[in-house]
Amino acid sequence: MPQSEEAAAWFAAVYETIQKIPHGRVTTYGHIAMLVGTPERPRQVGVALKHLPSHEAAVEFHNQNVPWQRVINAKGTVTPRGREEAGRQAAALEAEGVEVTRGSLGEYQVDFARFGWFPESVD
Q1: Paired residues of 70 in beta bridges
Q2: What is the pLDDT of residue 54?
Q3: Whole-angstrom Cα distance, residue 101 to residue 105?
């Protein structure tokens, strides 16, 4: 995806911040947006993750070094992008020891009280 220098820098800031989420913890798109200084842009965090390259690409940030699975929506559910993708994200979280339950509509849920990561800032 072609990007301006500004967009590329913002995507990099998002990816660097997501890399700081500890193993076995989750946070929200909105919290990542707040941590990178743009609290009004949680949807753009999702866009950045949607465009995260696969590890086969010769790039600095990719799906093997940016723990994309640790970012979920503000309701504590895996964003429904299709059953297969949501299931893959839930399985990746479970592999890290995060307990993922199913809601009444079949959605994948995570308890923020147990697994949430919400620092005021990151170094």
Answers
A1: none
A2: 82
A3: 11
Q: Give the DSSP letter string of the chain.
A: ----HHHHHHHHHHHHHHTTSPTT-BEEHHHHHHHTT-TT-HHHHHHHHHTPPPTTS-SSS-TTTS-GGGEE-TTSB---S-HHHHHHHHHHHHHTT--EEE-TTS-EEE-HHHHB---S---
**Model pTM score:** 0.92
Tokens 């990151």 locate to 122
- Residue 53: count other Cβ atoms within 10 Å of its Cβ: 15
Q: What is the pLDDT of residue 89?
A: 94
Tokens of 19: 């890399």
Compute mean pLDDT per 10 residues along the chain, 123 residues long, and list them.
80 96 98 97 94 80 92 93 83 97 94 98 87
In order of 4, 5, 81, 86, the CA distances from 73 in angstroms are: 27, 28, 12, 12
